[in-house]
Amino acid sequence: MAPWARAKAALTLLAIDPAGLRGLWLRARSGPVRDRLTAAFTHLPLPLRRMHPGVADDALYGGVDLAATLASGHAVRARGILDARAAVVLAMAERCPPGLAVRLGQWLDTRGSCVIALDEGAEADETPPHPLTDRLGLFVDLSDIAWSEATDLALDDTKLAAARERLDYITTPPEALETLTRLAARLGIASLRAPLLAVAAARASAAWRAVDTVAEPDLRLAADLIYAHRALPEAEYDQPPPEDDTPPPPPPPG
Amino acid sequence: MTQPFPFSAIVGQAEMKQAMVLTAIDPGIGGVLVFGDRGTGKSTAVRALAALLPEITAVEGCPVNSAKPEDCPEWAHVRSTKMVTRATPVIDLPLGVTEDRVVGALDIERALTRGEKAFEPGLLARANRGYLYIDEVNLLEDHIVDLLLDVAQSGENVVEREGLSIRHAARFVLVGSGNPEEGELRPQLLDRFGLSVEVTSPRDVETRVEVIRRRDAFENDNENFMKKWRRKDTDLRKAILAAREALPKLVTTEAVLHDCAALCIALGSDGLRGELTLLRAARAIAAFEGAAEVTRAHLRAVAPSALRHRLRRDPLDEAGSTVRVARTLTEVLP
User: Where is the AAA+ ATPase domain positioned along the sequence (chain B) (predicted)?
Assistant: First the structure.
């Protein structure tokens, strides 16, 4: 799949089931290509909240609103960013301190929300902390995408809404769960969060294709979007994978 | 998500589950440290533990869950003498938490609105008689660690700040989890944990598939899933209560005490805490199994959890602490 088509596929799935996929790790330097993708976050069914890595606890969880309290004479609490379901856009995520990563991770575990980590890391090892990236389902790297490739990302909001409605009624055959788990193990992915995120991705994909059962194209897309960046380099595989078993690049949804 | 994942439904991870059950039987063992890979269900197990713990009775409205009306701290002005049962507190201590939230501080709300100097209890007050859970414990800031070490040792929280001078009981069991790749724990803090377990991602594919199946059922078929596993959790909770009652009647022979000491000497574990924890854990597991007396088999079952974090570094021994405990076990307790 072409990199930009892949970005579009990831965005589509995230817009269908942000809570199940937990979020997106977006690796790209700030620029027009990234702006084009971030502009499309408005398709998400959650309110967008932006934060920076140095955000303080009272901004996250709320606290006493000093001015309002003194003015009114009774305690007034300010609401925090994490008090409600939201899609949090974390700017400069490569600078995120471990404490914030753990807080966001625990918040994601309660379900209902998602985090989009904007990673501007320059070096290969300059990434957001692992407690966070392990929980975010999707990964997109825009580094090598030219402006001419980055076409407009207008998604059909009616179709997205229909897919979201269908999501609860999608059946996942037991074999599908098994295939995704086995594939993750074969790719050397230790974390058991990955297969669960892949199941969510496959369901969202089936909902987008307007079918009621998860089928092979959904599994392929899920494996590509969720496993590709998590897989260990081939030398570190547990067992050598049979050659015919790697899924070929799936067609973009829609 | 309102209800945590049921404890009984956790696949594999036998040592971690055993350690959690032992600390529920005898909180005196002193908590559990779970170290291991990401996505292995460490925090899931701790959250599930809360549902297994028997309820406590406490004075109504007491901020430190006092067991008797006369134990209520003076500053709390508790007038009620009614006893209520409540769930054993399992309190989260988040990373980057500020000192005032941990120990408690001046109640800003009352100071601003009524001009009164009152104390607002912190997390340590809420954790009294319960569990304090620290996720990613190895990333906790040093000054919070210092504070915790002192309170865990003395069982009392002393607050001297903002013109307040108060103290209250803070006896809690520490439960921590973390990933060793991201930093080591200070030996003083390690020692405060009674048991330590290492968890790894299951290597076996069938086990992994079962984990995913259950987790998926939990998230997408919650009602049926909970109905099925809640019964098993209830059975386990009853077994824990039965073990608590059996504990005082348990016989500990001289031979077992001797074995404990021999094992700790052979391993060169620091201090006497290792021996005491080993014995307590062995007694707890014997009670859980319904045995009449503690045997060598019980010691063997708990020795790795009770001792692996108390070994002195041996520059001539490259083997990991789990391997060293296992090796010494076969030598000393054949």
Answer: 28-203
